[in-house]
Amino acid sequence: MTQGISEALARRSIEEYAHLVAASTNDSDRVCLIMEAVEAPHIFFYGVLLHIPSVMALATNPSFAWVPQLLEVLCYGNTAELCALPADVQKRLPSSIYEKMRKLSVLSLCRGDVISLKNIREIVGGSGDVEVEVLLLEMMSEGLIEGCIDQRQDLFLLKDWAPRDVRPSEIGKMREKLEAWCANCDAQITAIQRILKGEGEWQ
């Protein structure tokens, strides 16, 4: 592979891979493209691939049924689930995928302002302090997470992070929560407007 072609592949986005996968006319080529995307060091989120009908249909092909299984774990699972895949699937996976899964597992913990480094060590597979710090530094350099390590309190102080893929079944629940939150905001705004007009209960 020439340097120019290699650089072009490195720049491919997940959307470009999705287009190529959807346009592919046979399962073998489709799987090659999917694994190329999975191994691309700059791509971490694969929901757009998993939900392509021809990719979901691979589950019925005994030779490639492991591919949507792998994508499912990368989209929604964690390190333990990746390591629990059948041995015949494990032997197909390069070490880089396990490292990527460790980073995705950390993203699963991102809620609020802090993450316990103990919880990170546990979810990525019992790594030591140095390994966890290196992992977090890599994630920050890759734009997956923003924050700083507080060694004294054994915490990672979160500022921002890249959200993981969401199961389609969860989207409805998220919409309901957002609608309830918006309704509450509207009620609060109405109450404030009434108070400002002298009609509130504090009048």
Automatic annotation (TrEMBL):
Record keywords, A-Z: Signalosome
Cellular component terms (Gene Ontology): COP9 signalosome
Superkingdom per UniProt: Eukaryota
PANTHER family: COP9 SIGNALOSOME COMPLEX SUBUNIT 7, COP9 SIGNALOSOME COMPLEX SUBUNIT 7/DENDRITIC CELL PROTEIN GA17
Protein name: COP9 signalosome complex subunit 7
Organism name: Trypanosoma equiperdum
Lineage: Eukaryota, Discoba, Euglenozoa, Kinetoplastea, Metakinetoplastina
